């Protein structure tokens, strides 16, 4: 099924999405990769505030290339999500509702997705230049010293993703294999 949703994302909308749905996101999402996740995790351990609110937000695991003149961002393809698996359950428990990346997630992340009524989306790897066309604005909001791994606030319009793990724990990577084997 094809769905058009707004970000930030409410849990009711997240719960309506099913593994395999094609989704177009419009609104505000954030970027964070390995180094930013590590800093956020350390901030939480020290009782410090995070640089962004987690409740209802979507994090895109991406570090962009430099923007060409007149564009808000350069190539913006997803990075491997499993590198954030150590940190994701804590952020989901704080209210994060969506994550965008590529590749499989750990059992702990899958359980946190279900526990929190969240969703994991995949963006198409290798299509960073095309994905950048859906990004209308980009602003570094934290950890500027990390360069491309800084946290960015993105304004997106019809950003294309696929639901991989839905709020019920259905996992497209598993069900697609099962369907293929039946053929």
Q: What characteristics describe this protein?
A:
7 strands; 183 residues; 5-stranded mixed barrel; alpha/beta
Q: How is this fold's topology laid out?
A:
Blueprint: E1 2-7, H1 11-16, E2 22-31, H2 34-45, E3 58-60, H3 88-93, E4 98-101, H4 107-116, E5 119-122, H5 128-132, E6 135-142, E7 151-165, H6 172-182
Parallel strand pairs: 1-2, 2-3, 3-4, 4-5
Antiparallel strand pairs: 2-7, 5-7, 6-7
Overall average residue pLDDT: 93
Strand order of the largest sheet: 2-3-4-5-7
Q: Percent of residues in helical segments?
A: 25-40%
Supply the number of helical segments: 6
Strand content is 25-35%
Distance between the termini: 22 Å
Shape: globular
Please write the string of helix (H) and strand (E) elements: EHEHEHEHEHEEH
The chain-level structural class is alpha/beta
Radius of gyration: 16 Å
Largest sheet: 5 strands, mixed, barrel
Topology, number of strands? 7
Name the poorly predicted regions: none
């Amino acid at each position: 099924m094809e769905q058009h949703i707004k970000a930030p994302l409410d849990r009711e909308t997240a719960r309506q999405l099913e593994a395999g749905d094609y989704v177009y996101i419009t609104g505000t999402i954030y970027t964070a990769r390995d180094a930013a996740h590590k800093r956020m995790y350390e901030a939480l351990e020290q009782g410090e505030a995070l640089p962004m609110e987690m409740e209802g937000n979507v994090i895109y695991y991406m570090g962009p290339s430099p923007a060409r003149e007149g564009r808000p961002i350069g190539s913006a393809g997803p990075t491997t999500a499993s590198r954030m698996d150590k940190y994701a359950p804590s952020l989901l428990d704080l209210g994060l509702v969506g994550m965008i990346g590529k590749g499989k997630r750990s059992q702990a992340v899958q359980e946190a997705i279900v526990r929190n009524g969240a969703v994991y989306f995949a963006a198409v790897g290798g299509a960073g230049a095309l994905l950048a066309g859906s990004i209308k604005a980009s602003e570094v909001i934290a950890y500027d010293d990390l360069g491309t791994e800084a946290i960015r606030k993105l304004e997106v319009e019809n950003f294309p993703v696929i639901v991989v793990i839905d709020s019920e724990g259905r996992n497209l990577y598993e069900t697609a294999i099962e369907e293929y084997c039946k053929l």
